[in-house]
Amino acid sequence: MNNLLLKSAIRQLWKNKLFSLLNIIGLAIGITSCWVIFKIVNYEYSFEAGVPQLERTYRIISQFKNDGKDNYNGGLAKPFYQAIRQMESVTINKGQKNQKLVEDFDEAEGNVTETTSDYFKLVGYKWLAGSPEKAFSTANDIVLTKKRAAIYFPNQAVQGLIGKTIFYNDSIPKTVTGIVDDLGFNTEFNGTEFVLLKEEVYPLNVWTNTNGTDRLYIRLKDGVKDLPIQAAINKIGQKKWQEFSQEKKPKFDYNRKVVVMPLKDSHFAVHIKEWYAERTSKTVIYGLIAVAAFLMLLACINYINLSTAQIPARSKDIGVRKTLGSSQGKLVSQIIFESLLTIAIALVCSVFLTKLAFFYFQEMIPKAYELRIIYVDGEFFAGKINAGQSERGKTDWRIATDIYFKWEPYKLPDPVATSLSKMMQQMGLFFGAIDMIRHQDGRYIFLEVNPQGEWGMLQRDLSYPIGETIAEKLVARLE
Predict the structure, then answer these.
(1) How would you list the strands of the sheet with 367-376, edge to edge?
(2) What is the spatial distance between Cα 5 and Cα 3, in angstroms, rounded to a whole number?
(3) What is the pLDDT of residues 34-72, one digit of tens each?
(4) Using one digit for the tens of pLDDT, what is the confidence trace for 227-261?
(5) What is the DSSP letter of 183?
(6) Which of 132, 196, 222, 395 has its CA 20 to 30 A from that of 376?
(7) Is the pLDDT reported for residue 15 higher than 80?
(8) Side-chain half-sphere CA neighbours of 142 within 13 A
């Protein structure tokens, strides 16, 4: 019975090749569009999904009034974290005396994060070696993520890295006291090297500053609401401002307000000014969902219209079948089976169309900065350019005309330089201009190598002896 239905359905689709092809193409495009948009929406809503007790975790940001407009900054005055830890309603880990969490992102290698051991409990890191209780016994301790540890200590087991030493700027030793697993979810917590945030006595003027790299997170105890906490934090800020005003008598007014924002909303907070952050507008997401629904509805309407247009042509076929004794149920089953076969073929086609779509929609890499690296027979000359301050520069610094970029000298980490040297040797290249991106999570992402690439800008701006080195290497090869 099923074989007969299948043969009849295939025969009918082949008989009306044009109608069948239009139906399949319309449905395949609709399904592909919906699946691609679903993947995009699912990715955007996956941020911070792995943070424990996400519903009770908040981020504290600063709000300013300028010319009657609200402006938001993702940072906070650094002393706030020491004041907030005194509040009994706020906790990072129950039973801990130091109830605080603050991050200070720097441009140092590997996104160095100044924090406390409570950071790992709030974010939900899994410890591969060491423990949060022993992570920061001294100011010289450091905790690494698994990927970052693999760069410093390749091909070594994480359990054997405890006690190893890393030197910053060739003179500042840090002892590895823990290795944490890389976060398995999308997040704004992009630190890869963690050091102790030292307690300080801050002067009053620091309370009036706001630094976007000083980010403060809190977790509220059960039953505590966010608005009373927000009011209490603002009260602390007002008190410090009054003390500052009496001492310094400033000519400017205090117009900052602290806002307690749910962490789950942070990824969609496009109103916050943070040049390094990856943000998405919920309005855009809702627009994409509407587009997906419209395309799917359009595909269904197209299928119904084409099927309806075939009714006059099929009436003769249906009449002959009824004359030969076919029941109404069998006729309905035949038509339904033809529809299911059409949808199945459209689904198969959509699989290939989806793969093709994702091939052309390449990954948008949230970059910390871009690198131009000149390779000359074993020697490297690297320059860094920070294009993230420009909206167009986030895609490519070469098309950014709204800001002036300045090249900065850059020293490649030894593992990266070694890998690039091996690649150039395997390709048989004596010279090459290599483009790379430094991801916000600390990874180095290779883009391309041009065997005739531009190098004059690095020699001009950074006084690198690239031309002289090329000449010397050529002369040496001739000799």
Answers:
(1) 408-410, 379-385, 367-376, 431-439, 444-450
(2) 5
(3) 999 998 899 899 999 999 999 989 999 888 887 778 888
(4) 788 888 888 888 888 888 888 787 777 778 889 99
(5) P
(6) 395
(7) no
(8) 26
DSSP 120-170: HHHHTPPEEES-GGGTTSSTTEEEEEHHHHHHHSTT--GGG-TT-EEEETT
Residue identified by tokens 């992009």 is: 190
Choose among 46, 63, 71: nearest CA to 267. Answer: 46
CA 159 to CA 170: how far, in whole Å?
A: 25
CA-based nearest residue to 258, from 110, 103, 61 = 61
Residue type, 293: A
**What is the residue-averaged pLDDT of the chain?**
81
Length of the chain measured in residues: 479
Determine how β-strand 69-73 pairs with β-strand 272-273.
parallel
Which percentage of the chain shows pLDDT scores above 90? 27
421: tokens are: 């040297």
Q: Could you give the CA distance from residue 159 to residue 147 in angstroms, rounded to a whole number?
A: 14
Once rounded to an integer, what is the mean pLDDT over residues 422-438? 92
